[in-house]
Amino acid sequence: MYRTRxxxxxxxxxxxxxxxxxxxxNHLDWSGERASSEKFKLLELxxxxxxxxxxxxxxxxxxxxxxTFHDRSVVMEASSPERFVIETDSHLDRTRGRPxxxxxxxxxxxxxxxxxxxxxxxxxxxxxxxVPYWLQPWARPIxxxxxxxxxxxxxxxxxxxxxxxxxxxPS
Length: 171
Known about the structure:
Blueprint: E1 2-10, H1 14-22, H2 27-33, E2 41-46, E3 57-64, E4 67-79, E5 83-94, E6 100-113, E7 116-126, H3 140-166
């Protein structure tokens, strides 16, 4: 098992942050369109419209540093406004090396902080088809820095999108 955790703050209240996460199609925005790297971003997502509840299934795919990932996911916990958990079975078609399969847990904890929120993202990787070099014990400290940086950028995108959604409608 391999786990990383990072957090950011948002001026948006917890309910708005939660609602932004729970509408799965928003992930295409903050983890796709706003992604800081073309080498790791969400490209497609098929999910029911509106807020996801526990048990909601969806699929997604995207660009990875060394290939394309294809995910099948289920919302395991949808506890508004403080927690949203997704379990994902992922298949990475690698451009170099053999395909890789892994199970991920994506946990978003949202807590009030000042007038806004603290969003904490915990990513757990387990049940892998094999242990690639980046998950070898000697490489984990280096890889963790890279993953935390990428996760932080995506969380910052989520925080900004939630802030945009919390602004009053100008009309």
